[in-house]
Amino acid sequence: MQTRKKYIFLTFLASWLLLFFFGGDQLRRFGFFSKRKAEARRNWPRWTDRSLLKSFADPEELQSDGDPSLPSPRAQRAARLSVYKNSRCRMETCFDFSRCEKHGFKVFTYPRERDQPLSESYGKILASIERSRYYTPNPEEACLFILSIDTLDRDHLSGQYVRNVDEKIRSFPLWNGGRNHLIFNLYSGTWPNYTEDLGFDIGQAILAKASFYTKSFRPGFDISIPLFSKDHPQRGGERGWLYQDSIPPKKKYLLVFKGKRYLTGIGSGTRNALHHIHNGKDIVSLTTCKHGKDWEKHKDVRCDKDNVDYEKFDYQELLHNSTFCIVPRGRRLGSFRFLEALQAACIPVLLSDGWELPFAEAIDWGKAAVVGNERLLLQIPSAVRCIHPERVLAFQQQTQFLWDAYFSSVDKIVHTTLEIVKDRLLPHRSRSRFLWNTLPGGLLALPDFSTHLGDFPFYYLQHGSGPSEKFTAFIRAVSLACSLSQPILRLIQAVSESQYCAQILVLWSCEKPPPPSRKWPQTAVPLTIIQGRRKLSDRFFPYTAIQTDAVLSLDEHTSLSTSEVDFAFVVWRSFPERIVGFPTRSHFWDAEQRRWGYTSKWTNELSIVLTAAAFYHRYPAGEGPAGWGARPHPAPPPRSLPRYYHSLFTEYLPAGLRELVDGLAACEDILMNVLVAAVTKLPPIKVTQRKQHKETVPQQ
């Protein structure tokens, strides 16, 4: 019996030892150590065997619950609601369209107070509006109102932060809860959360804001604008960096980034991870910790090496020699490098989740930028390598078009904002995305002229159409004697015999009335006399009597034969968007006097075709009257039916330029050539002519 008990005890003991030997680890994990089990759940993931799985991350980072300085989703939502109390605003609900019916789209800026602080950037915005064709000094005529209070920087730690905005705007009698107001903003929120808090209630105002978060953005109402620096040019702006010989599109570097690395706070996650894609060859991703007052307190083990590598490369050199540029979010969603990449033809690779891209309502960014995901950073190199070279070149060309059309100056950014608002007032006459995203762009393809692609000379190929087969001769008569001279009679006869001539218009700019009809030559085409002023700018007024696509602009002393007119018109029909003519001039930069010069010398180069004898497109927006009559008589006041280049000259150009031309009584052809070149990005075309394009005029 004792022996039997002994064998049973030994068997039980051996079984227990075998159980612990082969299955003890599982028991320790799942059965007995409940306290450790609960702790493991709280600190998931916990790698139990580090020798089997090498860790590429700091265990403290894996087990942390995130940056405690970042607001929770509930706090972010509460902050947005505090700013956008009218978050459901739409044009139909928060905009008074009746204010725009009588006087059209007019913009009024509030008068500025003497002691009111104004940043340089906001001063440029107000100047752009006040120089635009939509500005009115009369608030009774206004459709849209702009505050004179600087609202660009709403970071209360900034020296440009304006306090007590709420109290000030409520005292304005025109405020009306923000209705029909447009508010500009570049910076919102402050350290550490950088919420979109503006520090005042915008009410029902439209917000034109940089770094716009998609969850705060009110589609069809707000407008996302780019973040630009105080040094951004007021007008003009520098040209893009892509030149015609920039082929092939592949450059020294495939993908680059050089910028600050935030060690803590919002925006630090994305920039801290950029070093993972750096290979030092065709992908260069450099960051530095040296920014802020206390960066050394938060420096990590990578900071010293990053700071050294950061100084080895020049930022401008990287922009010039890279195909793609990473544009990660900073403290806010937008950054200056977005516009820098556009100008440099470095295709932006956007890593800023939730960013409403600038003017996305009008611009198709899928043709000019790569929109990435911050969480998929490691896939970016392989994604951009897969883009075909032809597609890369198309991206680069589109960056240059967008930069030049909408972003190269403060004027263009502001005018684009205004045009988007104007398009919303009459949706049936608004520009299509095609017009916004192809040359010459939305700022020049104005809907007041037309929204039909077939009416534009730039889109004949895409539309499968062409210009009309007839032209209108437009002769300006300003002789001091105010009488019919032989040169103008011969000119009318030669032009009227052209097989392509549809009508002849004579702008009689003398104080005396035109001669009676019996003294004018008999022509096979209608001859119409329009009485005008002695202003050179009248030559390009959008007269409704012009019924053809082509206009042949002539001076009264121009000497042309019928064959020369026919040949020039045939050439123009092949290039309907350009100026095609006979007499030419050249402009040049005089380095000694540091100013532009103008020469009439016969050379092998030209940059200007004089409108004394030239064809150009008048662009019809609709059908007008057939003419003021076949015989001479004073014409009624011309209606405002647009003629494309005529309308651009009369309405789009700043009034100061037209007044300068009228004051000098010269240079109108230079101004028209510059205007057409700015629209088409193409030079004029010269056709053959005789050495003398004018008749000899006797001394008066």
TrEMBL record:
Q: List the pathway annotation.
A: Protein modification; protein glycosylation
Instruction: Spell out the protein name for this chain.
Output: Exostosin-1c
Enumerate the spans annotated as Glycosyl transferase domain.
Answer: 481-619, 643-698
GO MF, one term, reads: glycosyltransferase activity
What keywords would UniProt list here?
Disulfide bond, Endoplasmic reticulum, Glycoprotein, Glycosyltransferase, Membrane, Signal-anchor, Transferase, Transmembrane, Transmembrane helix
Q: A Gene Ontology biological process annotation?
A: heparan sulfate proteoglycan biosynthetic process
Protein family: Belongs to the glycosyltransferase 47 family.
- Gene symbol of the encoding locus: ext1c
Q: What's the domain of life for this entry?
A: Eukaryota
- Intracellular or extracellular location(s): Endoplasmic reticulum membrane
Instruction: Tell me where the signal peptide lies.
Output: none
Domain Exostosin GT47 stretches = 103-384
Its membrane topology: Single-pass type II membrane protein
| The organism of origin for this protein | Eudyptes chrysocome (Western rockhopper penguin)
Q: Name one GO cellular component term.
A: endoplasmic reticulum membrane
Query: Which InterPro entries does this one have?
Result: Exostosin (IPR004263), Exostosin_GT47 (IPR040911), GT64_dom (IPR015338), Nucleotide-diphossugar_trans (IPR029044)
